[in-house]
């Protein structure tokens, strides 16, 4: 425990040592400011520190999912696979941290419990669960978008005699399911990635599905040295292009045709080509998949046919193919062998939409229809996304106003970066920014750069405070909502909408127009002297 009386004065307190916190600390040091990172885990890595379940893998290609801020990183690092698995992503985070000697300003196994703005001093008073106390001019939340695991509220879990796990808090030593009867609850990305590997070990695997999610094959494979070398030479150029990418869902002109513009044969051919490429690129087959229901139906129908062609038992196939929301409006999953896993005689699928789980029992669980016995239960039930980690802390701005109160009806921010009434508090990839709809590394670098440039701007002008104005925030919130409503996203009960958490306000949280349009807006705002922000001493 820290000395209860000692308050440490620093320029910036950074919460979280995932990819955002690592780079933020690097930039703060570059600016010559004192910064300290507080991290709940025992190491760096964020998402890739916690999500160690079998099959955990990034759904963005490794060659794109890396930092660009220092070219030597990508020159020195060699990705092994097209889609990196969690252990490699964690090693990458450690590599970058150690390459720049960042650990000395990081404190692990410590959670920030509160951050209170002091009206008299203009500083943030930050406290941790280890008794630390910091006084920081700037408080920077690098807390991640999917970092608060969510457990279902079934009764009886405490009496379960087997072992249970949440995919987002997986034991570091791994879990051996060999010979066990295993349940997996949840069929989002985490379920879909882990089920094929758990099935390889388990004696019996029962998958409890409430909502089917469609998955596109990853076609994961080893990268060749030639591919890596070519990427190293092209990387910075490709990244600059990606930074200004405008997705079709933005409503702007798209290079891709519209789905109903072409005949059935040509449409299927195109879907097949995108299926063969694999992964999230499938959403780009046509320019209107996320804005036009009829177009979306054609994309979903193609996947449905694939499911029926892979899964032998027609009832199981029908259950897996029964997705009832527009394709991609819940994050599309990227899989390796998911559908084929249901052809194993040891794997079965239970529809808990029809017969919900009522209780966990000492021996297993009971649905409205049946009783099951298990040695282990895996909850792949997701996260309190985008706002969960921020609201888990007691954050108070001017006059003691709490962020929980401010966001009672849903998150409100300017650019997803700042909240009016909370001076010098920044949220990296916060709600209202492209974040989870983008390659997170691109969004993280852009936010960190924006914040660092802003702090430098303040310092050069002998200013010390930056705060979103309520007017700019109001306009931004409306703009985000307006753009979201032009897409199909609000139709799904997704974590983008807060709909996976009981009682959470239903607000479409990410900025939908993509990183390119967003970046241009941010650049223009900075060039205009941080328009929409009030700057003061
Ligand atoms: P997701 O995508 O939120 O998936 C959670 C899954 O768990 C989903 O199928 C849920 O069904 C199901 N779930 C949640 N609560 C329950 C209860 N109480 N009973 C039964 N089933 C439940 O989380 P993931 O971890 O898979 O993925 C999160 C993101 O990480 C992903 O989008 C990628 O970006 C990486 P529901 O749909 O709510 O009916």
Please provide a written account of the structure:
- By secondary structure, the protein is α/β, with parallel strands linked by helices.
- It has 2 domains: 287 residues, FAD/NAD(P)-binding domain; 199 residues, no CATH class.
- It is 32% helix and 17% strand.
- The strands form 5 sheets. Strands 1, 2, 3, 4, 5, 6, 17 and 18 form an 8-stranded mixed beta sheet that branches.
- It is globular.
- The mean pLDDT is 97.
- The structure holds ligand NA7.
- The site of ligand NA7 has 20 residues, from helix 5.
Question: Gist?
Answer:
The protein has helices at 19-30, 47-50, 71-76, 86-99, 189-201, 225-243, 264-277, 293-310, 314-320, 338-341, 388-392, 403-406, 440-460, 470-485, 514-527, and strands at 7-15, 35-38, 106-107, 112-118, 123-128, 133-141, 163-166, 181-185, 204-209, 215-217, 333-335, 347-351, 357-360, 364-367, 371-373, 376-379, 394-396, 425-427, 465-468, 533-536. By secondary structure, the protein is an alpha/beta fold. The structure holds ligand NA7.
């Amino acid at each position: 425990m820290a000395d209860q009386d000692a308050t440490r004065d620093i320029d910036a307190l950074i919460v979280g040592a995932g990819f955002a916190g690592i780079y933020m600390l690097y930039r703060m040091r570059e600016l010559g400011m004192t910064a300290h990172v507080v991290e709940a885990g025992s190491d760096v890595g964020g998402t890739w520190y916690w999500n160690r379940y079998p099959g955990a893998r990034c759904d963005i290609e490794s060659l794109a999912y890396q930092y660009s801020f220092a070219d030597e990183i990508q020159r020195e690092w060699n990705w092994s696979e097209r889609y990196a698995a969690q252990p490699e992503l964690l090693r990458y985070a450690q590599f970058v941290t150690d390459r720049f000697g960042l650990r000395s300003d990081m404190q692990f196994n410590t959670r920030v419990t509160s951050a209170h703005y002091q009206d008299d001093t203009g500083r943030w008073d930050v406290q941790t669960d280890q008794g630390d106390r910091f006084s920081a001019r700037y408080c920077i939340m690098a807390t991640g978008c999917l970092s608060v695991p969510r457990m279902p509220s079934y009764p009886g879990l405490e009496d379960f005699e087997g072992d249970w796990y949440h995919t987002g808090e997986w034991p570091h030593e791994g879990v051996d399911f060999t010979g066990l009867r295993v349940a997996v609850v949840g069929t989002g990305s985490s379920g879909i990635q882990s089920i094929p590997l758990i099935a390889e070990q388990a004696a019996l695997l029962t998958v409890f599905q409430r909502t089917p999610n469609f998955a596109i094959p990853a076609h994961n494979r080893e990268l060749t040295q030639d591919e890596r070398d070519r990427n190293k030479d092209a990387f910075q150029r490709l990244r600059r292009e990606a930074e200004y990418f405008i997705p079709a869902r933005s409503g702007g002109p798209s290079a891709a045709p519209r789905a109903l513009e072409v005949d059935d044969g040509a449409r299927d051919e195109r879907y097949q080509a995108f299926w063969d490429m694999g992964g999230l690129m499938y959403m780009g087959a046509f320019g209107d998949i996320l804005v036009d229901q009829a177009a979306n139906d054609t994309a979903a129908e193609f996947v449905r046919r694939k499911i029926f062609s892979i899964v032998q038992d027609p009832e199981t196939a029908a259950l897996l193919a029964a997705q009832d929301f527009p394709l991609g409006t819940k994050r599309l999953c990227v899989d390796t062998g998911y559908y084929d896993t249901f052809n194993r005689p040891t794997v079965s699928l239970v529809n808990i939409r029809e017969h919900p789980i009522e209780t966990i029992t000492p021996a297993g669980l009971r649905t409205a229809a049946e009783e099951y016995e298990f040695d282990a239960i895996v909850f792949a039930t997701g996260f309190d996304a985008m706002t969960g980690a921020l609201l888990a802390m007691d954050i108070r701005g001017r006059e003691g106003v709490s962020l929980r109160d401010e966001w009672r009806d849903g998150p409100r921010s300017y650019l997803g970066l700042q909240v009016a009434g909370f001076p010098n508090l920044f949220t990296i990839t916060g709600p209202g920014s492209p974040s989870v709809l983008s390659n997170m590394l691109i969004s993280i670098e852009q936010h960190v750069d924006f914040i660092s440039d802003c702090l430098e701007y303040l310092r050069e002008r002998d200013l010390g405070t930056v705060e979103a104005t309520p007017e700019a925030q109001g306009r931004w919130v409306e703009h985000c909502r307006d753009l979201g409503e032009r897409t199909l996203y609000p139709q799904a009960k997704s974590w983008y909408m807060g709909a996976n958490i009981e009682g959470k306000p239903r607000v479409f949280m990410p900025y939908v127009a993509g990183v390119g349009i967003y970046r241009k807006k941010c650049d223009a705002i900075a060039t205009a002297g941080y328009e929409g922000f009030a700057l003061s001493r």
